[in-house]
Design a protein that fits this description.
- The chain has two domains: 190 residues, Rossmann fold (3-Layer(aba) Sandwich), CATH 3.40.50.450; 124 residues, Phosphofructokinase domain (Rossmann fold, 3-Layer(aba) Sandwich), CATH 3.40.50.
- Helix content is 46%, strand content 16%.
- The chain contains eleven helices and eleven strands.
- The strands form two sheets. It has a seven-stranded mixed beta sheet with strand order 3-2-1-4-5-10-11, sandwiched between helices.
- Helix 7 links the parallel strand 7 and strand 8.
- The longest helix has 28 residues.
- The N and C termini lie far apart (59 Å).
- The protein binds adenosine-5'-diphosphate and 6-O-phosphono-beta-D-fructofuranose.
- The site of 6-O-phosphono-beta-D-fructofuranose (F6P) has 10 residues, from loops.
Length: 354
């Protein structure tokens, strides 16, 4: 039996399809272990204001196929202050919350680390469409987002084919090109422009011009929003000017963040949610639940945050001081593997997409 009587669960940062499935998994796994569950609404804002209600088995029924998050989400700057943190700790004590599962991205995990340091053990679940958490091969919501892009761009391709046009499509993902790259590969795009890779516009113009001469009617170019909000509209104009192919622009924006979660996201959210409860009730904390090579694993949050900075070339002085040579070597190998997988897909896209 667990020493915990009551735990809390919250969703924070940008919402993602599959978050409801994770809420269901955490709630049901905890209740099955005899632990009460409190739903914290509106992320860390709800933890500060006390927007908290008990969750019973039936409260999480019929949510698994819904996008968004039944607990709502918020970005809460106050939580980053010591005063906000003190209010959150007081709320936890008032409601008897002894541990928390926090679902979100790296900002949410930073908050979870602070809470753990203040005596409320936390476990993080990676919930974001961006797939920008390096420690996990996949985040909850990523697969659904890619499939939504696939569906939208297949539609654009239909009309491009009829009218012999090109369509530039801007896709969310913040500074991570994962959604853009994989969906571009899946829709047979001519190119993907992502922050991680250099891009030669001249080559694109030549490719479009050449393939138009050979009879190709539709062209799709996917651009990650991380290239800057003016980039994709500008590229649209340049393609038309340089190739003579009529080119339209579409910004998919938040449409990619909603909708019914895919099977893959539902399974991932279920497995991760269950693992989070098991870890918390076993007395573990400050961990993020990850999937690596199809296995659910637990990673220290600090390790995950520094690994992330290493992958994104954002390491600061002293960041690696607390890690052993073995751990640093493991981080480097992990980054190289992830980068290699991205480059492999990028090469395939450029070779196969005309
Ligand atoms: P995500 O979790 O998707 O990365 P945000 O970066 O907006 O989204 O973070 C979600 C919330 O987590 C923030 O609104 C804030 O309440 C909390 N948070 C973010 N960064 C920190 C930090 N450095 N320290 C404490 N809490 C943070
Ligand atoms: O992190 C998820 C995400 O949808 C990003 O892809 C995007 O850049 C950002 O959130 C948008 O945030 P907001 O919902 O605050 O406009």
């Amino acid at each position: 039996m667990s020493t915990f009587k009551k735990i809390g669960i919250l969703t924070s940062g940008g919402d993602a399809p599959g978050m409801n499935m994770a809420i269901r998994a955490v709630t049901r796994a905890a209740l099955a272990s005899g632990v009460e569950v409190m739903g914290v609404y509106r992320g860390y804002s709800g933890l500060i204001d006390g927007d908290i209600h008990p969750l019973a088995v039936r409260d999480v029924s019929n949510i698994l196929n819904r996008g968004g998050t039944m607990l709502y989400s918020d970005r809460c700057p106050e939580f980053k202050t010591e005063e906000g943190m003190q209010k959150a700790i007081e709320t936890c004590r008032k409601f008897g919350i002894e541990g928390l599962v926090t679902i979100g991205g790296d900002g949410t995990f930073r908050g979870a680390t602070d809470l753990t340091a203040h005596g409320i053990p936390c476990i993080g679940l990676p919930g974001t469409i961006d797939n920008d958490i390096t420690s996990t091969d996949e985040t909850i919501g990523f697969d659904t987002a890619m499939n939504t892009v696939l569906d939208m761009v297949d539609r654009l391709r239909d009309t491009c084919e009829s009218h012999a046009r090109c369509n530039v499509v801007e896709v969310m993902g913040r500074n991570a090109g994962d959604i853009s790259l994989q969906s571009a590969l899946a829709v047979g795009a001519t190119a993907a422009v992502i922050p991680e890779m250099p891009f030669d516009e001249e080559e694109l113009f030549v490719k479009i011009h050449h393939n138009r001469e050979l009879g190709k009617r539709n062209f799709i170019v996917v651009v990650c929003e991380g290239m800057g909000s003016d980039y994709a509209p500008g590229l649209t104009q340049r393609i038309e000017e340089r190739t003579g192919v009529v080119t339209k622009f579409a910004r998919l924006a938040h449409v990619v963040r909603g909708g019914r979660p895919t099977l893959r996201d539902r399974v991932l959210a279920s497995m991760m949610g269950e693992a989070a409860v098991d870890a918390l009730l076993a007395g573990k904390s400050n961990l993020v639940v990850c999937v690596r090579h199809s296995e659910i694993v637990l990673t220290d949050i600090k390790y995950a945050l520094i690994l992330d900075r290493m992958y994104k070339n954002k390491l600061r002085d002293g960041d690696l001081d607390d890690f052993s040579a073995d751990e640093i070597a493991r981080m480097k190998a992990h980054c190289a593997e992830r980068r290699g997988a991205l480059e492999q897909k990028y090469r395939a896209l450029n070779r196969l997409g005309l």
